Amino acid sequence: MEHFALLRMLHGVAGVLLFVAFFALAGFCWRGRSRLMRTAQVIAETEAGVETAQSVAETPAEAEVAATAEPETPPRTSAWPVLCAVLLLLCLIGLPVSGWWLAHLAGWPLGQPWLLGSSLLFLPGAICGLWLAARVAGRSAGARLGLGLALVGVSCFAAILGLMVIKPV
Predict the structure, then answer these.
(1) Total domain count for the chain?
(2) What is the value of pTM for the model shown?
(3) pLDDT tens digits, one per residue of 69-93
(4) 48 within a domain of the structure (yes/no)
(5) Are 122 and 160 in contact (CB under 8 A)?
């Protein structure tokens, strides 16, 4: 019986890590949105500054020096979005396997409505999670779609959590 308790604990930890990975990827998506907005604002200010510098400068050479006076900083890259995507992928692979193993050890038939419902909810949640991870790791623009994917995925897995805790018969 100690195998069952250990497996149940690992299954619960994987579920918590899945939620953490979803929220982290949603946060990276939100941060990417604000970073894109700041970049657009800096570009607009730079273009306005270049026009002002060209109108103030006396010669074209001075206008070119004024336009390139501020060095451009390269964007910082982080490994955290990729690590969160890998964590999400590992949880998405491990949860169905450990869930089936738990059901097998407990003697629950897989045809019970709460198990079937959770299996049906797992598919759209997993698709949303993988799509979100690919968007964030690939630094795709469009935070609304990313946040929508995170919301659908988290709601699917929250419903699964509710079905697993309540276990309606």
Answers:
(1) 1
(2) 0.72
(3) 555 555 556 788 889 999 999 999 9
(4) no
(5) yes
